[in-house]
UniProtKB/TrEMBL annotation:
Superkingdom assignment: Bacteria
Lineage: Bacteria, Bacillati, Bacillota, Clostridia, Eubacteriales
GO function terms (MF aspect): phosphatidylglycerophosphatase activity
Protein name listed in UniProt: YqeG family HAD IIIA-type phosphatase
Length: 171
């Protein structure tokens, strides 16, 4: 189980992932988590740098969509504002959401990676489904009780800051 909780790659933020890095790793598509990866939890507005990052990825031919455990009413308007397809009620870490994403992307597992900020949903889900995981540190640490419990349980598995792939090194 320990290896399933260790991400393949670690970045400080989703916007630090470059097309050059992805091409070098043979990754042609990204399955993106929503909350605390593209924006803060339940925020309807993407983080400031996300639109530019998405434009850069699209210009380089990287395919992307959102996979979220959140519901349709949350995910649909956010995804539409970014021009991304989505799968909501994804059931991460179980595989059904990932399977739906691969079908929408029409791609092989070997060319896809999942990006997210949570060990027990995003990283574990990627590992169980057999695709690579890219961990990004949360935009903000949630303050709700269950979030604090979950983050406490993740602590032993959180990647060390020394594992971060620097923006400059990935170019």
């Amino acid at each position: 189980m320990g290896l399933l909780l260790r991400p393949d790659y670690v970045f400080q933020s989703v916007s630090d992932i470059t097309p050059e890095f992805l091409r070098g790793e043979g990754i042609a598509a990204l399955i993106l988590d929503l909350d605390n990866t593209l924006t803060t939890h339940n925020n309807p507005i993407p983080r400031e740098d996300i639109s530019l990052w998405l434009d850069c990825m699209r210009a380089e031919g990287i395919r992307m969509l959102i996979l979220s455990n959140n519901h349709y009413d949350r995910v649909k308007p956010f995804s539409e504002s970014l021009g991304l397809d989505f799968v909501c009620d994804g059931g991460k870490p179980l595989g059904s959401g990932y399977k739906r994403c691969l079908k929408l992307l029409d791609m092989d597992k070997g060319n896809v990676a999942s990006v997210g900020d949570q060990i027990y949903t995003d990283v574990l889900g990627s590992g169980l489904f057999g695709i690579r995981s890219i961990f990004t540190f949360p935009i903000a640490w949630e303050t709700g009780f269950w979030f604090r419990v979950k983050r406490f349980l993740e602590k032993p598995f959180l990647p060390k800051k020394s594992r971060i792939i620097a923006k400059e090194a990935s170019k």
